[in-house]
Write the structure tokens for this entry.
Amino acid sequence: EVVLTQSPGTLSLSPGERATLSCRASQSVNGISLAWYQQKPGQAPRLLISGASSRATGIPDRFSGSGSGTDFTLTISGLEPEDFAVYYCLQYGTSPRTFGQGTKVEIK
Amino acid sequence: EVQLVESGGDLVQPGGSLRLSCVAYGFTFSRYSMNWVRQAPGKGLEWVSYISSSGTSIDYADSVKGRFTVSRDSAKNSLYLQMNSLRAEDTALYYCVRSVRALLDYWGQGSLVTVSS
């Protein structure tokens, strides 16, 4: 199976700062089938990005995704208070679908 | 508005069985494949099971293969997960998730399964 490794485990930043989250795959992800999700405490995950770089409906443009092959990045260009949460990457190009272990973005 | 509402979670003893249900609202259920994804307390996400829109294609994570069975009833807009031979490590919040071309898009709020004696 494709193992996804997210880094860092925790990112401590202030509102307004730029956040850069990494997701590295153990093998090339089929057809850039890489998605990003945001999860806040007590809530279900919410889809942010699919196809490595396409924002889901209603997602602000401060969220952007990039990458291909084995290296992918989620960038939040200026953190808003509501962006402090846990972020997961998912590869859906190969069965079984696999998630990264998550990156927590916390307020510094 | 797409809504997925899970039910059936409970406290069950090791070796026991449980059936989760998910009712879908706001979209044509019969046209979409569906999944179950779980999250152990304080942990990350784990995909559990997939069923195609027609129900003819089914897949499971190795961790549940042979113990869990996924099914659907399009007449009732419902997805099910029959869980047998439950173990402590199956304790988790189970999410019902819609998929589009393998992408997991809409998630329910989850149903909590606790396996403990």
Summary: Chain B touches chain A through 20 residues (CB under 8 Å). Chain B has no helices and eleven strands.
